[in-house]
C-alpha cells in the first residue's frame, strides 16, 4: 500500500509508541474525525471503540468544545503560571476542587498523566519530610497496575506484566503487592506497611486496571486498601487518569466506591480528549504540610505548560458538557447494552472472562490470538478496536449511539464465538 505522501515520507522519520518500527503494521491514515467516527484517508469510516486511548468522552469534534477553544485561542493560547494568572486555570482549579470528593481541593496542573503521577509521588515523599522530617522514599503499588512511562511511574507499574520489565535494573525498587481481594491478602498488605517504614504512599488504579487488560476489582478491595493506609498513616493515591470523568458510571472511581484517597491524579478525559492536560489533586490535609513560612517546604515542581490556557479552556468546556448533557446516563445506557450483548459471552467455550463496569466492557479469551490480525480484521469490518493481550475491550465515547455501539459489540461477539 502506498500514500498518502505525508505518511510514506514521515514513516522514515517518525518513532511510534510501543512499536517495533521494523515489523509494526503500517498505521491507518486518518483524514478527520466526527462524533464516534474516524474518517480514513481513503474515505472509509470506522466506529471508534476506544476513543483515542479512552480520552474523547464527548465524541470527536464536539462543537461546544471546539468553540470554547477557538475563543481561548483568539484571546490567548497560553501564559505561564509562574508569576502570572489566567482565568481558565484558576476557574478549572475551583471547579475540580468542587467536583472532587472529600477534602481533595488543591490542584496542581501538568501536561500528561505520567507527570501527574510523578507529582503525586513527589508530594507524598515531601509530605513525610515536611510533617515528620522522615525520609520515606519508596512506594507500594499493586500487581497489574499501570501508572505511566516515565522513570518513577514505570517503577510503580507491575514489574513483570507491564512493558517496562526491561528497565527493571534502572528503576528504583518499590514494593509490589497483590490487591487485597480477601482477608489473607489484606493481612499481607498490612504486614508490608507495618514492616517497611520507608513507604511514602500507596498508589492504585481504583476499581479498574486498564492497561493490564481491563482487570476489575470490587469496592471492598478498595476499602481494604484505604483501611490499611489509615492504619499506618500512609497517604493513598488514586490514579484516576483512566477512571476519572464518568468512565465507571460516577464522576470518579472514588465517587463510585465511596472511598476517598489523599491524592488523586487526572488526565485523559479531563479535556474531553482534545488537548493534553493533567492534574494532581491533594487533600487539604496533605497540602497543609506545604503551607508554611519555610520556603524549603514548598513543592518544587513546575512544568512549562502547566495549566495550559487552551487545555484548561477545553477542560472547563468539558465540565460544562458534563452538566448540560446527560453523560452519566449515557454511561449507564452503555453499561446496560454491554451487559446484554457481551455478558452472555461468559458461557462461550473460548471465553475466559467477561468484565463490565460503566462504559468499559472486556472479553478475555482463553487462548492467545494474533492481535495484529484481529486488529486488521476489525478495521476491515469498519470498527476501531485494539485488543490488549488476550482481552478485547471497549471504552467508547459516552455519546456513542445505540447502532454504533451495536456495530462494536457485534464485531466482538463475532470474534469471541468465531
Ligand atoms: C491509569 C493510568 N495512569 C497513567 C497513565 C499515563 O498517562 P499519560 O499517557 O497521559 O502519560 C495512563 C495512560 O494510559 C493510565 O491509564
Describe this structure in a few short sentences.
The chain is of the alpha/beta class and 418 residues long. 37% of the residues lie in helices and 17% in strands. The strands form 4 sheets. It has a 7-stranded mixed β-sheet, with helices on both faces. It has a 4-stranded mixed β-sheet with strand order 1-2-3-15.
List the helices and strands and how they pair.
Blueprint: H1 5-10, E1 30-34, E2 37-40, E3 45-48, H2 51-54, H3 63-75, H4 87-99, E4 104-110, H5 113-132, E5 138-142, H6 151-155, E6 175-177, H7 183-195, E7 199-204, E8 208-209, E9 215-216, H8 219-232, E10 236-239, H9 253-257, E11 263-266, E12 278-283, H10 284-288, H11 309-324, H12 327-341, E13 351-357, E14 360-365, H13 371-380, E15 383-384, E16 391-394, H14 402-417
Parallel strand pairs: 3-15, 5-6, 5-7, 7-10, 10-11
Antiparallel strand pairs: 1-2, 2-3, 4-12, 8-9, 11-12, 13-14, 14-16
Helix pairs in contact: 3-11, 4-11, 7-8, 12-14
Pyridoxal-5'-phosphate binds at residues 112-114, 117, 146-148, 205, 210-211, 239, 241-242, 267.
